[in-house]
Amino acid sequence: MVVAEGKTFCGEHANANKNAKEDDVKRIPCPLDPKHTVFENKLEKHLKKCNSREKPKPVYYVKDVNAGLEEDPDTSKEQITLSSRSKEELGVFIKKLKHAAAGLNHKHEEQILSHFALQEALNDPNNGDFAFKHLKQQASLLGNMEALGLLGPDRCFVEFGAGRGKLSHWVDIALQGSRNTHFLLVERATTRFKVDGKHKSSESVFERLHVDIQHLCLSKVPLLIKEKMPVVGIGKHLCGAATDLALRCLLDRSSEEVTDREPPRKRLKTDPAHTETGVDEEQPASETVAEKRLKVAGISIALCCHHRCDWKHYVGREFFRSLGLGPQEFGVFQRMSSWATCGMRKPASDAALPEGGNGKQEEDFEEHDQDGDTLAYNLEGMPAVEERETVGRLCKLLIDQGRIYYLQQKGYAATLRYYTSPSISLENVLLTAVPAKD
């Protein structure tokens, strides 16, 4: 807020003025969002336009359409923290983990690529270390997408957890000159420094969907209904359960069943099909369910924050059960997965942002690497750092393998690979999927 002429404080901090007169209008916290204040005598007017007010739900909002089923009421109970478990209990779970992961390939293929669309930005000396790290990741993501044949015209790219929309931005630059390219940027939060405005004059269509992935029914998005084009699901550092929600959003047919269950429109006498005699002529068969389904051409999602996964939404529950594991083991593995990135660094409270950081720099800061359980630093008798890292990686591997199994069951050839080096990001695994060849 700007300080008015003759005032010492802006409106937001007017209450801090000790010299304020008694008749000065008081500012109070907004009842919809106490993070900001409003003049008391203008509260009623403010509530009508406050950005935190409840807004009408968009047509593609279907509550919990991508949420998993609550199979067991006990799973909804608060999880027991690792620090509440004894060393012996953790030892039992680690033994189960190693047994379950025994037959899995513990080392992913490394495929660190680049793309010409980012060469100029990568060579720009004005980009600092943090910007360079993100550019390197985006370049490799585009390179891997191109290697899979996902970059092309006549398709719609759906970026989940879009944030500022930088990944879609670079995909659009890579596809300059391509016809009929659309972008849907899914983000539940209001984001600053968006790059969408840079594409207002381009031939590509950019549209933001302000909705939680949990409630997004893609088959009801007007753009996709109109264009009927293949969809490519993309994401960079899609945290925990958001990855599972995105996979359900793309591939789970329950959302399409919601559309199919809608009552048919009542035929009116003015309809062309209704003849002058009042007898309905035979109508062509309506569009089949298969024709209504989204055609998902591929998926490319950089994974992170497995400790934020949720058994209810997890797509690999069937895989876990096939190994004799359930929600209790999943809850422990989910928490221990943070050891892969937190076991060798200081706790998040000791981490510092770059000097002079602004809003954009804070977003570029690798906050994903700082999250997680810092148990390793405050309990005695725990495994050594190397052992904790190994356990954390096995937890991530097992959770990701459940996602691979889910994609395979849906008819996709899915892979996990390292798309960047640990020095660029500790969360360096990319999940890709394309339709399996017959």
TrEMBL record:
Keywords, comma-separated and alphabetical: Metal-binding, Methyltransferase, S-adenosyl-L-methionine, Transferase, tRNA processing, Zinc, Zinc-finger
Transcription regulation as UniProt keyword: no
Keyword Phosphoprotein belongs to the record: no
One GO molecular-function entry: zinc ion binding
Annotated segments matching region Disordered: 258-287
Listed EC numbers: 2.1.1.225
Biased composition regions of type Basic and acidic residues, renumbered to the chain: 258-274
Domain CHHC U11-48K-type positions: 27-54
Catalytic activity of the protein: adenosine(4) in tRNA(His) + S-adenosyl-L-methionine = 2'-O-methyladenosine(4) in tRNA(His) + S-adenosyl-L-homocysteine + H(+); cytidine(4) in tRNA(Gly)(GCC) + S-adenosyl-L-methionine = 2'-O-methylcytidine(4) in tRNA(Gly)(GCC) + S-adenosyl-L-homocysteine + H(+); cytidine(4) in tRNA(Pro) + S-adenosyl-L-methionine = 2'-O-methylcytidine(4) in tRNA(Pro) + S-adenosyl-L-homocysteine + H(+)
BP term (GO), one: tRNA methylation
Top-tier EC class: transferase
PROSITE patterns in UniProt: ZF_CHHC_U11_48K
Pfam families recorded: TRM13, zf-U11-48K
Family: Belongs to the methyltransferase TRM13 family.
Function: tRNA methylase which 2'-O-methylates cytidine(4) in tRNA(Pro) and tRNA(Gly)(GCC), and adenosine(4) in tRNA(His).
Name of the protein in question: tRNA:m(4)X modification enzyme TRM13
Taxonomic source organism: Acipenser ruthenus (Sterlet sturgeon)
